[in-house]
Amino acid sequence: MGVLPTTVVKVGQPTCWICGAKNLTLLRARTVPLRPTSVLFRVTDASYGHTFTIHRCEQCGFQQCMDATDVISHYVEMSDELYEATSEARARQMQSLLRTVSNFKQKGRFLDVGAGIGLLVEEARKLGFDAEGVEPSRALQAAAAAKAIPVHLGVLPTPEIRGPYDIVSAIDVIEHVDKPLDLLIAIRNLLAPDGIGLLVTPDVGSITARLMGRKWWHYRPAHICYFERYTVRLLLKRAGLSPVTIARPTWYLPMDYLASRVASYLSIGNKIAIPKLFGRFKVQINLHDSLLVVFRRADA
User: Fold this and answer.
1) What is the CA angle 36-135-91, rounded to 5?
2) 104 vs 13 pLDDT, higher one
3) Burial of 275 by CB count in 10 Å (0-12 exposed, 13-18 middle, 19+ buried)?
4) Strands 165-171 and 109-113, how do they pair?
5) Is the peptide bond preceding residue 5 cis, with omega within 30 degrees of 0?
6) Does the pLDDT value for residue 84 go beyond 80?
């Protein structure tokens, strides 16, 4: 693994997934196994610092992993018991996101893309939104269905999902797909003329990311797109969308989960015992290294 900022690779296809330029600079060599399993694509995977090969577009600065192939099949087969076990704390994050949504919309049709086990859908329905979701993982969608939370199995676009929607969200989703522009266009096509979108994604241009370098915790196998403010704005523009506000989202996680993440990050996970008592406490965390973007259709 290394950083090779002076090596420029001119490729015919594929090109930059956002702007279409062909001049790409190799930033990081691949450290993901040649035959990755769905385990590496879990929400709770702790393979921090490991990525597919990352190239940076010389024209717009977008960073992408072109050797991450057939990603959707991994999400279809992926299950994540730890994600489900920490759902109570994660629901508080969804409540925080909905407070942002409520500044713009207090009712209406709501679609959550990449809905997981339906945490955001469930919280939105409690507030009176006509909410539903779509999720590629069979296991996560089944968990939502078991609680009677309306989450469709699949990805956008799909015939089961028909607009217009007053709100469409994609929370920590866009960094997982190899066609981010297509996804945003699909979201735009589902938005009502006066609808709003909500996007959350890691910010590779943040101070935290720069300070942590290759050890940044968002450098993970499942993340194959790396955005910062400029490339998010460019992506929205190319999809026919425009940002309304950009902020920093907050997470809520159990203290024992956070302690285990820190231990894993420091490579001491098997050397310390984390008290079960920690699981009772929910911790609010914001490292200011993600972006929360509210957006509208550009023609609104």
Assistant:
1) 105
2) 104
3) exposed
4) parallel
5) no
6) yes
CA 48 to chain centre: 15
Which pLDDT belongs to residue 46? 86
CB 221 within 8 A of CB 41: yes
In the CATH scheme, what is the homologous superfamily, with its name and number, of domain 8-297? Vaccinia Virus protein VP39 (3.40.50.150)
CB-based contacts of 72, cutoff 8 Å, min separation 6: 136, 155
Residue type, 243: P
Length of the chain: 300
Domain ranges of the chain: 8-297
Q: Which helix (H) or strand (E) holds 201?
A: strand 191-202
The predicted structure's pLDDT at residue 93: 93
Q: What percent of the chain has pLDDT over 70?
A: 86
Confidence check: pLDDT of 286 > 90: no
Per-residue pLDDT at 50? 94
Coil, strand, or helix at residue 181?
A: helix
Whether pTM > 0.70 for this model: the answer is yes
